[in-house]
Q: What sequence folds into this?
């Protein structure tokens, strides 16, 4: 089953492969379609409706479905930390423990309950262990999952930089800090890109570590899969060798995988070969979209990345 077919299924479009698997044919989501007239390229994700609904890239498809409220409903969660849910250090500790992160682990990573914010504070350190910034992990069920200080640019940091500088093994890229913590605890060096988009600055940081082999282990959801695809293309263009890990279906992210099984899951990585995700003429548009400057399909691009503009894919990396 092709990844595009998987992706379509996830956004509520059921299709079949035609033209020796080159294309996927489905009922058009934009009109009352009795004879499937909606075609999607299984290589690029580009789509077209032969009944006149238009066409575009896969990201444009998702955005249009979203703007027309045709995406499968997602759960609504409160977005702003407030006083309506009383949280205490004790309930936060219990929540961490349920997720397999015990007191010792929290203290190894300097993670502490911050009663002012009502979240667990995660320190971001520099090469010498000095404080560079910080993030707060909100209790379960809240979005965004992480809060960052005003002015902090997520796209300029890789977590945990203080440990990454001495990593001797190939690095796993993950979305959130707790995913990274989990992998380090399992003995695997990991870097959180603090979102799902790898920025030019982060690519420069990765290059400065001297690692040419990277493994992508983004979240097991639609945004994570689109990000894996796009990051694969970008990082390969920058000369990295990319592997990726498909998480077992029942886990949403690597942090949900029991610590004892992490090594096993990660060992089933595969070389990421990608046939090109978006037509070249849509690429600039997509990159802007992934940075959160236009589109809103990302969950994480609420703060820093929207302000970060690189002058092109080689911008700061050159
Ligand atoms: Zn149509």
A:
């Amino acid at each position: 089953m092709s990844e595009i077919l998987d992706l379509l299924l996830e956004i509520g479009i059921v299709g079949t492969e035609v033209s020796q698997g080159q294309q996927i044919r489905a009922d058009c989501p934009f009109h009352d379609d009795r004879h499937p007239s909606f075609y999607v390229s299984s290589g690029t994700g580009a789509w077209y409706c032969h009944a006149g609904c238009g066409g575009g890239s896969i990201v444009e498809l998702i955005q249009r479905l979203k703007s027309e409220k045709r995406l499968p409903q997602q759960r609504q969660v409160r977005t702003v930390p407030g006083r309506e849910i009383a949280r205490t250090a004790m309930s936060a500790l219990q929540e961490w423990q349920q997720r397999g992160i015990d007191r010792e682990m929290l203290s190894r990573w300097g993670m502490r309950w911050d009663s002012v914010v009502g979240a667990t504070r995660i320190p971001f350190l520099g090469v010498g262990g000095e404080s560079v910034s910080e993030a707060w992990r909100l209790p379960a069920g809240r979005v965004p999952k992480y809060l960052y200080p005003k002015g902090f640019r997520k796209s300029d940091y890789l977590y945990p930089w203080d440990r990454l500088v001495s990593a001797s093994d190939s690095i796993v890229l993950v979305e959130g800090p707790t995913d990274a913590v989990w992998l380090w605890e399992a003995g695997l060096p990991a870097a959180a890109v603090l979102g799902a988009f790898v920025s030019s600055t982060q690519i420069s940081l990765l290059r400065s570590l001297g690692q040419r082999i990277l493994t992508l282990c983004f979240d097991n959801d639609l945004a994570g899969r689109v990000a894996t695809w796009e990051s694969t293309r970008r990082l390969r263009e920058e000369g990295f060798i990319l592997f990726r890990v498909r998480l077992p279906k029942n886990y949403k992210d690597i942090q949900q995988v029991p610590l004892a099984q992490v090594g096993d899951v990660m060992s089933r990585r595969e070389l990421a070969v990608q046939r090109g995700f978006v037509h070249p003429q849509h690429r600039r548009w997509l990159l802007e979209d992934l940075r959160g400057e236009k589109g809103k399909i990302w969950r994480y691009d609420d703060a820093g990345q929207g302000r970060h503009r690189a002058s092109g894919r080689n911008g700061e990396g050159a």
Remarks:
- Residues 89-307 form a domain with the Dna Topoisomerase Vi A Subunit; Chain: A, domain 2 fold (CATH 3.40.1360.10).
- The radius of gyration is 20 Å.
- The chain has two domains: 3-67, 89-307.
- The longest strand covers residues 119-125.
